Amino acid sequence: MENRPLISVEGLARRFGETGQPAVFEDIWFGIDRGEFCCLIGHSGCGKTTILNVLAGLDSPSGGAVIVDNREIDGPSLDRAVIFQGHALLPWMTVIGNIAFAVSSRWPTWDRARVQAHARKFIELVGLAGAENKRPAQLSGGMKQRVGIARALSIQPKMLLMDEPFSALDALTRGMLQDEVLRICADTQQTVFMITHDVDEAILLADKIVLMTNGPGARIAEIVVNTMPKNERHRNDLHRHPQYYAIRNHLVEFLVNRSKAFDREIAEHGFDPRRPKLVKPGLSAVNPPADVVPLRHSN
Amino acid sequence: MKASLGMRAGLLSVLIFAVIVGIWHVATLPTAASGPAVDPEYAKLVGAAAATGSKSAMPTPADIGATIWKHLADPFYVRGSNDKGIGIQLAYSLGRVLLGFGLAALFAIPLGFLIGMSPLVYRALDPFIQILKPVSPLAWMPLALYTIKDSAISSIFVIFICSVWPMLINTAFGVGSVRKEWLNVARTLEVGPFRTAFKVILPAAAPTIMTGMRISVGIAWLVIVAAEMLVGGTGIGYFVWNEWNNLSIANIVTAILLIGLVGLLLDQGLAYLARLVTYPE
């Protein structure tokens, strides 16, 4: 292919158990451009985490490939940092120890002072200055996840992979961290792939929202372009933006109805798995629509 | 005002101790009855009081106290091969235990690491471990004596063999059950196998390994007494057996108390080390 995006997922499929079992997902095609924030939304069991693990190099697909920078992924890489759902900090190390472990893995020739200074910079970035010498057990859930974010950013990866990073946090903490991730990613022009099942989180953070149908045999149904400009997205008045409800209704409608009946849609309209339809619901209804879907999608 | 739980427990301990000593004292009081005439040879052998039956060989608490004091006042004397201070005997036993235990740790922890990392090796070695683990370490003694032909080394071997299993099994279990996400952190950071082993797996499994070491040292201290009774020569086990031949119950009781005390110190020492490597999650 000529102009490949930074990350190109091509024909990915995953089966568990013997061959002949139905695939969890198959024929998955999508791309993520440099500097883009891409969210993947779908119900539990459609294989979202498996796709992220394949991108991270922690799992290998049953079919297809992921191409990063024109090279096929064949294992984990320091170019792709993972923020784990359960923060995955090493509990016997301090905050700075956890980050320094990552930094010295990235730059093995750096001396101790340089590693510590670099780690300290990223602790400050996520607002944890002063907590350097605490152990993870002494931190709140939100602080732990901040350390996880600092660890991922500290190795200055080409892309960040996040697996529902805020799902275990309370609403207030989640909101604060979302704001910070938004700010940090905008500042550093980070390429991000994030799994979420929170529609509002996706609208706040993502430039592109990939919608996945239910498994088994899950597919990419379509890709929603977030037409709300990044600088107009603020958590507190997101719902006042003229495009917000159109996008939100589109996503909720997909999760509630279309995700499980997508086969019927294919039968009626046809479907090219290689080129998932790009939709821009935000532009089709700049004025708030009359029929607001009141349901808030929950896990 | 109510005293703290620790205070009341301590008071109760003292009370129980006093009751036991009291019963013991009453039970071993000399009887005034004059027994039948005794063969002077026998009287010379067991002591006049015991021979007449006016005093049993069982010492009174006061005798024990005096004996303990005598031993503690001069624990390191050497007056010939069968008359060494109790400190020296304990030191021999401790030396054997620490040597056998140390060798076992050097062997069991790396091997346990390997077993824990590889399901293949785990399943291949499992039948051997399962069969050899329940064998009393003393059953190895004849085999050790025959092959090694040295009683001192044989007793160390017996300590080795009884210390190996808990450390081997705990290390394998600890290494095998390191959380997947911690290993994934190391993988995504492209950490090499050795650095992963020392920086992630070892600290993660350290509390489990230390528990294994604590169990091992406890068993080793149990076994050394029996092993030294068999092997003879030196050590606290030999001392106990020797005093049995001398029918000196007071010395035996002293040895029992000191064995318990040293065992407690060994256990507490490893518990302290275990606390150093334990991490809250």
Automatic annotation (TrEMBL), chain A:
It is found in: Cell membrane. Coiled coil: none annotated. Residues 7-239 form the ABC transporter domain. Its main location: membrane. Pfam families: ABC_tran. InterPro entries: AAA+_ATPase, ABC_transporter-like_ATP-bd, ABC_transporter-like_CS, ABC_transporter_ATP-bind, NO3_transporter_ATP-bd-like, P-loop_NTPase. It is a peripheral membrane protein. Gene3D superfamilies: P-loop containing nucleotide triphosphate hydrolases. One of its GO terms (molecular function) is ATP binding. PROSITE patterns: ABC_TRANSPORTER_1 (PS00211), ABC_TRANSPORTER_2 (PS50893). Keywords: ATP-binding, Cell membrane, Membrane, Nucleotide-binding, Transport. Belongs to the ABC transporter superfamily. This is ABC transporter ATP-binding protein. It comes from Reyranella aquatilis.
Automatic annotation (TrEMBL), chain B:
The keyword Glycoprotein does not apply. It comes from the Bacteria. It is a multi-pass membrane protein. It holds the Pfam family BPD_transp_1. The chain crosses the membrane at residues 97-116, 152-173, 219-241, 247-266. It is found in: Cell inner membrane; Cell membrane. Residues 90-274 form the ABC transmembrane type-1 domain. Keywords: Cell inner membrane, Cell membrane, Ion transport, Membrane, Transmembrane, Transmembrane helix, Transport. Belongs to the binding-protein-dependent transport system permease family. This is Nitrate ABC transporter permease. It comes from Reyranella aquatilis.
